[in-house]
Design goal:
The complex is a heterodimer of chains A (224) and B (621). Chain A has helices spanning 2-16, 37-66, 93-98, 101-114, 116-127, 134-162, 185-218. With 224 residues, chain A is an all-alpha fold. Chain B is 19% helix and 22% strand. In chain B, strands 1-2-6-5 form a four-stranded antiparallel β-sheet, with no helix packed on it. A four-stranded antiparallel β-sheet of chain B has the order 4-3-7-8, with no helix packed on it. Chain B has a four-stranded antiparallel β-sheet with strand order 12-11-14-15, with no helix packed on it. Chain B has helices at residues 17-23, 29-37, 39-53, 267-291, 293-300, 314-319, 323-326, 340-344, 364-383, 432-442, 496-499, 613-619, and strands at residues 60-66, 72-77, 90-98, 101-106, 109-111, 116-119, 129-136, 139-149, 160-169, 175-183, 197-205, 212-213, 221-228, 232-241, 254-257, 395-399, 406-410, 456-460, 466-469, 569-573, 579-582. Classes of the chains: A mainly alpha (224), B alpha+beta (621). At the A-B interface, helix 2, helix 3 and helix 7 of A face helix 3 and strand 8 of B.
Amino acid sequence: MHRRTVVQRGAWAVLLWPFLFTKCIPLDCQDCPSISQEKLLDRVIQHAELIYRVSEESCTLFEEMFVPFPLRLQRNQAGYACITKALPIPSSKSEIQQISDQWLLQSVLLLVQSWIEPLVYLQTTLDRYDDAPELLLNKTKWLSGKLLSLEQGVLVLITKVLNEGMVSTSYTEQAIFQYDMQLDMLESIIKDYTLFNCFKKDAHKIETFLKLLKCRQTDKYNCA
Amino acid sequence: MFCGANPRWTSQLCYPLSSIMTVSSKYSPLLFVCSLLFTPGCAFLFDWVDTASSAPLVPHFTECISREMATFSCWWSTGSFQNISSPEDLKVFYERKSPGKTDRNECPQYNYLNQECFFDANHTTAWDTYCLELHVHNVTYANEDDCFTLPYIVIPDPPVALNWTLLNLSPSGLSYDVLVSWKPPPSADVKSGWMRVEYELQYRELNSTKWKNLEIQYDPQQTIYGLHVGREYEVHIRSKMKAFVKFGEFSKSIFIQIEGSGDDGTSFPVMLALIFGISGIFIIIMFIVVSQHQRLIMILLPPVPAPKIKGIDSELLKKGKLEELNLILSGGGMGGLSAHAPDFYQDEPWVEFIEVDIDGADSSEKEDNQGSDTQRLLALSQQVGNHMHIGSSNATCFPDDDSGRASCYDLDHPDQDPLIPMATLLPGQPEDREASADRDQTTAPQTWVNTDFYAQVSNVMPSGGVVLSPGQQLRAQENQEDAKKGSKKETCDDNAKDIHFQLLVVDPENTEIKQNSTPSTSPVSNEGYQTVPLQTVDPNPIEEQQSPYILTPDSPQSPPFTPVADYTVVQEVDSQHSLLLNPPPQQQAPPPSCQSQHPLKSLPAMPVDYITPDLFGHLSQ
């Protein structure tokens, strides 16, 4: 997996390095190693699956370690209001089945990009705890790294799927996340717990979207 | 602040009370008080109280389940409320929190019969938080537990269309592998990727209660290895959403069975082990038999003991070295000298036997012994002035039916100077025989005066002496093996008191055994000594009738015997195994005196007409 990640990153870095600043991705790249769309989609899906699994493990670790019993979310994951809000992402299955591939990918991209900063924040906040387990810290670090790779992969996928030259993403809502370092312990725990839960939920969403996309790409007529 | 103002926060149990209060504002007052007083332990208490507070007394939702992550239903319970009759009394509201918005609606579809609220696909959004509320009589009953996110309440349907195919059969025909395949639940949209479902297969034998689990896997097929022929198995499968925890119900079971006689599944190795064990044991036994062949033959098929003269090697007899024996063994059936007597009279300690050891032909030791025995005997005779030699007689050997050996007798004994060993009648234990024999050669009876070489024992003194009668021809009526004769040995030892015996002479015609209470009894009276039929202790008794010759311990009187010759030459042994003795010169032997230890000294000077076969045994040496 790491080798694949390195290769992938290398491929993307080679592909994208001039455009990292502009956040626009040109398509005309003659020297770049090419990868088929199906393979890329498979790899992106694998990324998403792995991210979801690790996020679930991290959330469980955090819950067992820091969250007092009465504050734990029930099995049904009621969850607090998640931070990622006001994103035009369909939620119901019926809606999702009606949207186009491009919109699906765009939704995925939005989700992925909205979680990059909170994950970085999670890393810093975990360092503040006294007895945060090493495993939890490593997982969080891994998550944020993988999310970046996922973002890059989705970006490439979008260009391939859309077959368009430029994809512009709007980051007007990038300042959603607010850092608040003045929280006391319990509030901080609650906030972090919420973060973990919401990220877990969104990771599942990303994975589901990508799977739907894959089905549409392979067999357009049988997919509901 | 129990945890202080330390910016480094510690673990979960340590948190300030104020925070507890803010968080647990919805909790009961009991919880509030508890949280004020017992901070560390209340963390656990919260849980307990929380569960206690959710006692089903108020209307509440029992569960919410989604089958395919597109619709879901929630069921409620009225609890202990009994006055809910009309639909107007109870309403369900829900609050859906999605990113960016929160909306509140009533249940889209009621089912009062089932007490169910059904949310169709239009009202179901994944990844949004739903919180349900019950409104009964305008009272809101809401619970934190009633909030959920759709993927976490999904319980997939069980898979369908289970079937199995035989993969392969083991070479022994006792076990086989099976591939079980199924279809995903029809309600789950697995094909489009909307749901990812994984499966867990369980199987068991029909007569067992324990299910065996196989690994959870994603493919709708699985192989079961190692099923036994002839047994029936039950298989069922359940499914769950991948990366989630809730399992659905089990599918309908299918039954797998392959007919066969493979019920020896468990007994086959047992039989194999049994066969190997038996073969191994058999091989070991054969090995033992082969290696210990000779010993086993000896144990299982012991050689039949042939009658033997103790001390006489039958080989010597066969080889013809019987010159030594000729003088003694004359007639038929004289073989058994003292061989069987000891065995026969073990329980009669007063019977003494003279041991005859004639196995001297092969070893020098035996020669020496023979010589010593001979010397013993010769010493006696020398002292009595007789020339004794052994083994110079011409022996005629003829087969003896009794003993199995050729019995030889001397035909022309008058020409010889036959040597008849003096009867060493030693009182004492049979075990002392050897010792007695050894003592024989040490001293010679000094009391012998002018006695012949042969003497007939006429009586045994109560004191232990042996009375030898002067040589007198007696009719040897029967000569038996030494068996019971025994050497009438006397010692004048201390144990003589135990072993006094008296010679019992029994009339041959008289089959009765007359026990002499006193030495002087009629049968042994003046009419002289008669040959006493000697009973053969031979294993093959051929004699028709023998009167037992018994020596009994006796009263201390010496019989007034008619003096007879001291020595009597055994002339022949007649068919009745009686000894025919030469009449020795008349001589008056002095009455025996109880000498110290020497048996020869105690020999009476009165010869007797007969000589016991024991004497012959000694003579032969």
